[in-house]
Amino acid sequence: MKLQKTTILLLFMIFISVVAGVLIVQTSYAKKIPQNYNVLGTMQSVKYGEISMERYYRNGNNVKAFGFYQDGKMKSEYYLTDNSGYSSKYVSYYPNRQIEAKYLRWIEQGAKQYLDEEYFEDGRLRRREGTKVNRWEYYDDNGDPTVIYQRNGDSIKEISYYSGWKKQEEAEFINDIRNGSWIQWDSSGKEIRNEVYTNGVKIK
Predict the structure, then answer these.
(1) Cα dist. 193→149, 156, 199 in Å?
(2) Number of domain units in the chain
(3) What is the domain extent for residue 22?
C-alpha cells in the first residue's frame, strides 16, 4: 500500500512537471508573437521558389500573415482588420526590400474603396489604380506607359502609347461617353485623327 501511494505521488509530480513545462514554453512563445496574436498555423513552402515559410496569426477578427525568403528576409505581409473581411492590406517585397506590390481595401462612409500599386525592382511604378486616385497608370516590362487615365470628377482623359513614350491616342469621356477631343497618331507620330464630340455626338 505504501509503495502504491509512493508511485501515485511520483506520477502526480511528473504530471505537474510536464504541465508546468508546457505552460512555460507556450508563454515564452506567445511573447514572441506580435501583439499577442495566436498562432493559426505555420506552413513550410519549399515548393514555392525562394519562399521558405508563411506564418499566420489571429486576434479576434484581425488576421496577420507573414511570408519569408529562405534567407529570412520578409517576402510578404497581410493584415485583415474588420468583421466584413473586406478591409485589408497586402504588401510584398523584392529581395532588396523594395516594394513589389501593395493592395489596400477599406470601407469609407459605407462604400468600398481600394488602391492597387505595383513596382519594378528598381522602384519604378508598374501599375497604379484606385477609387481615390485621379491618375491611373499602366507600364510595360520596359517601364514605358501603355495607357494613362486622368480623372477629374466624371471627366476622364485616356492617353494610350506606342513603345518609347510615343502617343498613340488621346480621348476625353464623361460617364464613358465621348465628350471632348479625340486624337490619334500613327507610329511615326503623324496625326491621323482629330475630332471633337459633345455627349457622344461628333461636332467637328
Answers:
(1) 20, 19, 19
(2) 1
(3) 1-32
C-alpha cell at position 113: 474603396
Cross-strand pairs, 174? 155, 177
Task: Report the alpha-carbon distance of residue 18 to residue 119 in Å, rounded.
Answer: 51
pLDDT on residue 39? 55
Cell, residue 201: 455626338
CA pair distance 67, 79, nearest whole angstrom: 12
Residues 6+ apart with CB under 8 A from 21: none
Q: Is residue 8 part of a domain?
A: yes
In a domain, residue 4? The reply is: yes
Is 144 within a domain? Answer: no
C-beta atoms surrounding 104 within 10 Å: 17
For residue 174, being part of any structural domain is answered with: no
Least confident of 25-29, 74-78, 101-105, 173-177: 25-29
Rounded CA separation 79/68 (Å): 15
* pLDDT digits 0-9 by tens, 28-61: 333 334 444 555 554 444 444 566 667 778 777 7
- Alpha-carbon distance of 65 to 175, in angstroms, equals 39
